[in-house]
Amino acid sequence: MKATAAAPPDGDSPVRADRPLTYEHYLRVPELLRLQQPLSDEPDEIHFIIVHQAMELWFKLLADDLRALVRLLDEGSPTECCTRLRRVNDTMGILLTQLRSLRALPPEGFHAFRGRLVGASGLQSVQFRELEVLSGLRDDNYLRTVRATGGTLPAPVADSLRRRSVADAHRDAAYRDGLTCWTELYLPQRAGSALYLLSELLLDYDELWLRWRTEHVALVRRMIGGGTRGTGGSDVSHLERTFSHRFFPYLWEARDHLPGAVESARPAGHPSGTSAGGCPALHEGGNSA
After folding, report:
1. Is the pLDDT of residue 217 over 50?
2. CATH number of the domain residue 58 falls in
3. How far is CA 239 from CA 49, 112, 218, 245, in A?
4. Containing domain of residue 23, as a range?
5. Among 14, 24, 78, 226, which residue carries the largest CB count within 10 Å?
6. Tell me, what is one Gene Ontology molecular-function annotation carried by this entry (predicted)?
């Protein structure tokens, strides 16, 4: 039985129902290829546009996967979580490769059309901010800046702030698994456990974001230098301040207390809510910042 083309989702003229579905109809390739509209005649601008549009598509997939990950964590499905996280990390790798491709853009070629982009900035990407919030970042400085300038949060970001993040769901899953201190995750009896593997994949995800941030700054310096403000008005130092952002800081902090804290994580009489050697204690729920 042949598949037939359905009406486009945005209300455009429907594809004829009696015509077999084709690759171009299914993916709407003609419409997709019309979305690249350079503001200049510079040949390098099309490269810049395509990379950023492709990134936004990958951001959409990441957001869908992160929401699914929260649901799977809450359902207690660690194996499925690991499968989903591997795809998430593969997607992050693709995003890094796309970012690196912009290094092939000659700086003089970029400056030839950059002046037309004033007012537009990657910092305005709603999906990028949504991904940070979905992952576990609650950036108070960002919220204060928005309020101070009289702005409002984009609806998807505001909605994500009201929902549980991956970090929230991960901490709750560890709590249900009996963890009281994050260094306990590295005890011999937990080696290779589903929670251990999941946590290491989350650390990989966090590290991939750090790589993206550092490589983005390197790219900016390569293209416009360190003293030039971006088209949105911010400078490189603003981007460099994001290097400290972590979605799962407790997993990084646990490294500070290995191996000694593992051997005596909770000695007799140690106060509840803390752990030996100051290792990060686990609490159900809460935000990651």
Report:
1. yes
2. 1.20.58.480
3. 21, 23, 10, 11
4. 1-32
5. 78
6. L-tryptophan 2,3-dioxygenase activity
